[in-house]
Amino acid sequence: MKIIILGAGQVGTTLAENLVSEDNDITLVDNELLRLEDLQDKHDLRVVAGSASSPRVLREAGAPDADLLVAVTSSDEVNMVACQMAYTLFHTPTKIARIRNSEYLREKDKLFHNDMIPIDHIISPENLVTEEIIRLIDYPGALQVAHFADRRISLVVLKAYYGGPLVGYAISMLKEHLPYIDYRIVSILRHDKLIRPQGSTIIEAGDEITFISATVHIKAIMAEIQRLDKPYKRIMIVGGGNIGAGVAKQLEAGCSVKLIERNAEKAKSLAEKLSNTLVFHGDASDQSLLFEEHIENIDVFISLTSDDEANIMSALLAKRLGAKKAMVLIQRMAYINLIQGGTIDIAVSPQQATISALLTHVRKGDVKNVVSLRHGLAEALEVVVHGDAATSNVVGRKVSELKLPQGVILGAVLRNEEVIIAKKQVVIEENDHVVIYLSDKKNISEIEKLFQPSAFFI
User: Fold this and answer.
1) What are the RCK C-terminal domain coordinates in residue numbering (predicted)?
2) How far apart are CA 81 and CA 77, in angstroms?
3) N or C: which terminus of the chain carries fewer CB neighbours within 10 A?
4) Count: domains in the chain
């Protein structure tokens, strides 16, 4: 696939790194020549220096015969104009743009179509991160939660802790504890090494477990791996930007929410917009403020400013003063591995949320959802099966008969609204929604080909 990526910031660079190893023809466009040259030295891709919305630059980047254009510059307006140019001048088939401004997003149905601004798919990092945080609040103790198949199937990442009934026992014991619940443990990460789960595998405290199950069974399975946290009811949020305000708005009906904002005018505006949230003008690194607002009673402290270091430091302080859990927004990928799982419980990455949404539109075949895992090394995707026994490599075949690369696991199937865990004897049928886990995303091209009917091979 020939892909043009506009913007070599963190999202554009991470996307290029994800796709360049998958036999794609990638061209990266940015104004910063030194940044482009550095990326070209590291990866097998083309670079073009110049304005992303310039017809000349787009032509030089190969827009006339590109399959996909992804506009992820720091400017919404440049992204919109670039998509307009690609549509009008070059008839680019698929155009994706990152749009951050909430005013544009409120009017998206009127603005973003071929008669106005021709964008096929809109990516909003703020909305994606807000949704991810809400999922983590809904499932206390999870490190990552992703929903598939109209939310009927879920993938959950969590740590095993002492106190979990299954810790210290073989995976096969889970069936004895939960005889009426089906599940699939697809990955165990132990001391940064992947272990292929088998029935005889002993779960140890500290293991990072990834499992797939029907969404209704998530909490029952989690309770076997760690002592299940009580529902989060008392929330403190730092930062009143789009994400902080969005999280507060969604939580304030069911939780006691406090929000700290450093800017006085913004704090006043938020106090008027948020009907059931206590908004404070202040600094989250102010110990006296945290003591006054009873930080020791807070279930989750969520730091969501645009400053990574400030988020980390305020979360560390909050935990030291008694907050039960700390969640932080982190822009720099290098920081995530350093902090998550230590004093700070969860790090949320806008880049990873955005990459997941972008990959959904990049993957070949009828792919409904993609989730990037382990900071881009692993992946889970939902594929709709098409074809019949004559044209498909999977239809009419048992899971055990499929030639899957090492590290690829079929987790679950949605068939006529029924969730089926993909055990060896399960036969794949047309129109099944199959959730697939890949411990190494380098195998993605093989999976794409496996699930495409022969008539539609690319």
Assistant:
1) 143-227, 368-453
2) 6
3) C
4) 4
7: left (phi over 0), alpha (psi -120 to 50) or beta: left
Q: What is the dihedral of CA 152, 155, 159, 164, to 10 degrees?
A: 40
Supply the pTM of this predicted model: 0.90
Residue 322: CB atoms within 10 A of its CB come to 14
Q: Among 423, 8, 364, which residue's Cα sits nearest to residue 182?
A: 423
C-alpha distances out from residue 241 to 81, 147, 246, 282, Å: 26, 26, 8, 14
Q: Which of 50, 107, 80, 130 is nearest to 354 (CA)?
A: 130
Q: Do residues 284 and 261 lie in contact, with contact meaning Cβ atoms separated by under 8 Å? A: no
Q: How many helices (H) and strands (E) does the chain have?
A: 16, 22
Tokens of 301: 């402290």
* Contact yes or no for 255/276 (Cβ under 8 A): no
Q: Are 372 and 349 in contact (CB under 8 A)?
A: no
Q: Output the six-digit token pair for 130.
A: 């807000």
pLDDT tens-digit map of 341-398:
678 999 999 888 998 999 898 888 899 999 998 877 899 999 999 998 889 999 999 9
- CATH assignment at residue 193: 3.30.70.1450
Domain end call among 291, 324, 352: 352
Contact 228, 219 (CB under 8 A): yes
Q: How far apart are CA 164 and CA 143, in angstroms?
A: 16
By the 8 A CB rule, do 92 and 86 touch? yes
3-state secondary structure of 342: coil
Question: Distance between CA 342 and CA 394 in Å, rounded?
Answer: 43
Strand-pairing partners, residue 158, are 142, 209
**Which domain does 316 fall in, by range?**
234-352
Interior CA angle at 341 toward 186 and 203, to 5°?
40
| Contacting residues for 179 by C-beta, under 8 A, at least 6 apart | none
pLDDT tens digits along 317-355: 999 999 999 999 998 877 887 787 678 999 999 888 998
The residue count of the chain comes to: 458
